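Morning. Coffee machine broken again, so started the prediction first thing and wrote up yesterday's gels while waiting. Chain of 97 residues, entered below exactly as on the submission form.
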Amino acid sequence: MAGFVSGEGCFLIQIAKYGKDKLDGVSLSFKVSQHLRDELLLRSFISFFGCGLFNYHGVNSKSGVFIIRKFSDISDKIVPFFKNHEIRGIKRKDFED
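Came back before lunch.
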């Protein structure tokens, strides 16, 4: 899993702003993308972590994504997993942030 994240994963912090100078929310996401030929692999991550979902990147897209948005799943499952299974390379810094 650490290898997938090093290559095709990302950790996101999303900030939602609606209206002038108004912060409506901050959310975390964890994603792993692959070509659709690997859809079953991406779907297997749902049972591996016990959370998340599979989605297509968009209409006519040839890639899919495994995504976790629920804060408690990221905090209780993803963070401990990657503390024990170190991500290497530049994505390690994204994880640390």
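The chain has a mean pLDDT of 88. Going to sketch it on the whiteboard this afternoon.
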